[in-house]
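Please check the following for our workbook:

***
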Amino acid sequence: MKIDTLFLAALLLTGTTLWARVAVQGFEQALLSAAIDWSLNTIRAGTRLLIIR
């Protein structure tokens, strides 16, 4: 049950962040900038994980 709540909270936060970007930047730019940010964060997390291990 805790995993469901955590997943729902993360999904809600992601959706809220994306809608805030849409309001400021426009739909296409918001999707593109969000995809770039999420990709870069994933790459950074992966490299940190490899460096720590």
The CA atoms of residues 18 and 50 lie 29 Å apart.
